[in-house]
Amino acid sequence: MRLEVASTIVSTSDQPVRRIARLARQISDPIERLRYLRGLLRMVRRRRRWNVPSWRPGVMVVSALARVFTGPRLKRRRNS
Amino acid sequence: MSNSEPETSQPVGLDVGTSRIVVARSADKKFHYETQLNAFITLPYSRLAHTLLVREEVFHEVQGEDLVVAGDDAQRFAEVFHVETRRPMYQGVLNPQEPHALPVIRRIVTKLLGRAVTEGQKISFSVPTALPAGEDALSYHQASIRQILTELGYSPTPIEEGLAVVFGEMGASNYTGIGISCGSGLCNACLAVLSVPVISFSIPKAGDFIDVQAASVTGERATRMRAQKEQAFRLNGLTGDRMQNALTVYYDDVIQTLTSALRSTIASSQRLPKLDRAIPLVLSGGTTMPKGFLDHFIHNLRSQDFPVRISEVRLAEDPLHSTARGALMSAMC
Q: If DSSP codes are grouped into helix, strand and coil, which group holds residue B273?
C-alpha cells in the first residue's frame, strides 16, 4: 500500500496531528518528549517511499508525521 | 572507572554567538553553562609581556609578531589599555575582515570544551539563519566550526538559533511556537510545529547595530555604549540623557524591524500550517534583557494584525543560555 503525502498544507486540528500532540503531552520529561517527536521525524525521513523531502522539511514533514499514525490504522481496516 | 566519566561523555550544546560562546552540559538532570566572551585584543610580542601573561595565567597565545589575548581576559585588558576589543565574528558568522578570526574561535572553543571524552561524542552547535545574501558566508562559517569540533573528536550537528530557542523554552507547548534569539549580530526567529521548523529568518539589526548607531550620533565609543546598555539602561521612553535617548531610539528601530519582519514573513508564507490553537512566542538573547524590552515588543506586535494567534509573549527564563540549552537538548535527542 502506498500512502499519499499530497497535502502541502496541513492543519494542526487534523485528528492525526492532534493525536501526536496528545501522545507527546503525556510524556512528562521534556527531553523524552522532544526525543519522541524527533524520533518520529527521523522515521518519516527514512521512509522515502512517502516522498518526504529531506531538505527543509517544514510543513511536508508535519503532514507526513500525521500519516505515521494513520498508516497502520488504515492498513488494519483494509485487512479486516 | 570513576562515576564522572559517563557524565562528561554525554552530549554537549554549543552556542557560537557573535558576542559570547556558551557551552551547555547536563549533569544530575540539571543544565550547567560555561561562557567566554567571543572577543580578543592583540599586543605586540615581547618576552617580558609574554612572561607576565603566563605568570598571571591570562588566556592568550603567540601568533607571529602578536600576543593574542582572548575570551573574558580580552575585556579586562581592553579596559586597562583603553582599547576596543576585536570580534572574530560579525553578524552571526566569521568576520571576513579579521585575520585572527578562526584561530581565536578555535582557542576559545577548545578552552571551553576540551577534547571529546570519547571519539564521536555528540555536540550540537548553533548557527544563524542566513541573511538574504549571506548563504555563502554561512556555509563557510558552518564548515569552519564543524571542522574545529571534528578535530577535537566530536560528532557535530548544526542547529538554527531560533529552533534552539524553541527546543530550550517550549517544552510545555509541545515544541510549537515562535522562538526568537536577539543577540549581538543578528536577531534569529523560527516558527516550529511539533519541533519541526516551518519558517526561519534573521534580520541584521541587533545589539551591535544599537551600539554602533547610538555611538555615532553621540560621539561616544561603541564599547562605552555597550557598557551603558548592559549596566543601567531601561527602555522607558525619552529622557534628558542623550546616551539613554540614543539607545532608546535604536532599540525601538530594532524592535520595529523585527516585528515587521515577523509579520510579513509569516503572512507571505504559502506553506504555513493551519494552527488550531494560539502559539507562544519566546524572546531570548542579551539584547532582550533591558527592562521595558518586552513591553515595547508586545506593543509593537499588537499595533497591527498578526497572521497567527499568539497565546503569550514572554522572555526566556535564562536569556543568555537558552540557545545553548536548546542545542544541548537537540544533541540529547
A: coil
